[in-house]
Structure formats: C-alpha cells, structure tokens
Amino acid sequence: MKTHPQDQALRELLRRSWIVEPRANPGFRSAVWARIDAARRLPETWFGWMRLNIIRVSYCAAFSVLFAGAGGGLLAATQANREREALIQRYVVSIDPHQQVGFARLP
Amino acid sequence: MNYRWTTALAIVALGLLSGGASYFCFHDTMSIPREDRHDSLAWVRHEFGLSEEKFAKVKALHEAYELVCADHCIAIANSRTELKRLDAAQAAPADIAAAAAEAKAVDARCIASTEAHIKEVAALIGGEEGRRYLSIVLPRVVMFDHTGPATLDLHAPAHDHTGGK
Predict the structure, then answer these.
(1) pLDDT of chain B along its 165 residues, tens only?
(2) Model ipTM?
(3) Rg of chain A over CA atoms, in angstroms?
(4) For residues A95 and B117, is the Cβ–Cβ distance under 8 A?
(5) Which of B16, B30, B66 sits opposite A77 (nearest CB)?
(6) Looking at CA atoms only, how far is residue A40 from chain B in angstroms?
(7) N or C, which terminus of chain A has less Cβ within 10 Å?
C-alpha cells in the first residue's frame, strides 16, 4: 500500500502538535486497595450478602411479586371468563331447540 | 458474582410462586366449583347467587321445559326433513313454499316458547339479577344464527352456534 504524500505531512504535524503528558492519578493506588479490601470483606454466606444488599433485593422482590401476582390474576380472570362463556353457552343450548338440533332458523 | 445469581434465581422463584398463588386464588374465586361444571344449570345458580329454594324452583321449571324443548326439537327436525325431501324430489313450488311456511311457523313457535321460558325464569330470579339473566340469555337465543343462511341439510350443523357472540 502506497503512502499518500499528504499522510506524511499529517504525520509530521501530529508528531509536533500531539504531545501526550500522562499524569499520575493520585487516587489510583488507594482505589485499587479499596477494591481489594472490599473483595476481602465480601460476606462468606449468601444471607450475609443479602443483609448488605437488603434494600436492592427488597425492591426487586417486591417488583417481581407485584408483576407476577398481577399477571397471574389477569390470566385467571381471562380463563374464568372463557369458562363462564362456555357455561352460558351450554345453558343456552339446553333451552334452545334450534341450537340443540343444530339447524339455523329460516329467514 | 454467585450471590447475585442466587438472589436473582430466588427472586424469580418468588415471582413464580406468587404468580401461581394469585392465579389459583383468583381462578377459584371467579369460577364455579369444578364438580358443578357438568351441570348446565349450575351456571345460573352460581352467577345469580340463587338460594336453595329459588334454585329448586328454577330447576323444576327447567326440567319441565326440557320436555317442551324436546318436542320442539322433533318438530324442527320433522319440518326440515319434509322441506329437504320436497326439495330433493323437486316438488311443486307451491308444496315447497307450504313446507317452508310450516317450517317457519315451527321456528316461530319454538322461539316464542323459548323466550317465554327465559322470561319466566327471569321473573322467578327477580329484581336486578332477573334483568341481568334476561340480558345475558335472551340475546344469545334471539340472535342465534340470524345472520347465517338457512340450511336444508339435516346433517349440516348450524352456521353459528355462538349466537353471534
């Protein structure tokens, strides 16, 4: 692949103007040690972890219970309605001779 | 993060449990008892909260009407058979018209009889519940297959058994 003459110029320009001066993060070391320390202090049991995260876990559990409860209720209502319709139809058939014999009425 | 996954699984399990519990609780409250579902009258008792005494009267009325209904069924079948026979035999149009008129008359008698029975049951239930019974049952009988064409085929089912619902 040939290098375009302008690329060379761009490279020169970048070399002169793009100066990277890395600055040391004074908090880097302490942050790393803090993470190591936090990992060391991780509870040994699940219940210990739950105690530490009780608020987040409670929110998630409450949402899950509400969502699933509402879904279950909705499903039950739909199915009960369908069953009710079937029962009504069965009753109507039991009193309607046309529906019993399966003939349409003459217009 | 094992604890996170364990917690997530526990929450999902909790959700499934509460969803299932909610389903069974709501379903049991809203539906009629399983042992009554084979009985066509059970819906009337459950839906309109009939007392034992009232239900016994409705049941007696229903059983008495079953005999009338059976007679109507036979009359409808006979009138249609005759109509079909004349149609197949390419009988005189006047004869077919007469048979069709007779079939219509049978239909009208059956509808009137069924409506009268429904109104009688509604009166027996009484009050607001009686009116509600009427509003649920009557349209399903009156509207049955009004939109579908008449059939002369004895073995063909009616076009709409749901009464247009």
Answers:
(1) 588 899 999 999 999 999 999 999 888 777 777 777 777 888 888 888 889 999 999 999 999 988 888 888 888 888 888 888 888 888 788 888 888 888 888 888 888 888 899 999 999 988 899 999 999 998 888 666 544 433 333 344 433 333 333
(2) 0.74
(3) 37
(4) yes
(5) B30
(6) 14
(7) N
Q: Which residue shows structure tokens 């229903």?
A: B62
Cβ of B144 and A88 within 8 Å?
A: no
Helices A54-95, B93-125: axis angle to 10 degrees equals 130
Q: Do A92 and B77 touch (CB under 8 A)?
A: no
Size of interface A-B (CB pairs under 8 A): 169
Q: Whole-angstrom Cα distance, residue B84 to residue B76? A: 12
Q: Which residue from A65, A80, A98 is facing B144, i.e. has the nearest CB?
A: A98
In chain B, which residues have their Cβ closer than 8 Å to the Cβ of A43? 3
B115: left (phi over 0), alpha (psi -120 to 50) or beta: alpha
Tally Cβ neighbours within 10 Å of residue B145: 22
Greatest Cα pair distance, chain B, in angstroms, is 89
pLDDT tens column, A53-87: 899 999 999 999 999 999 999 999 999 888 888 88
Structure tokens given for B100: 């069709």
Report the predicted TM-score, pTM, of the whole model to 2 decimal places: 0.66
Answer whether A94 sits within 8 Å of B62, measured CB to CB.
yes
Answer yes or no: do B11 and A60 touch at CB < 8 A. Answer: yes
What letters, b where the CB count within 10 A reaches 16 and e where it falls short, cover B82-97? Answer: bbbebeeeeeeeeebe
Q: A91–B150: do the CB atoms touch at under 8 Å?
A: no
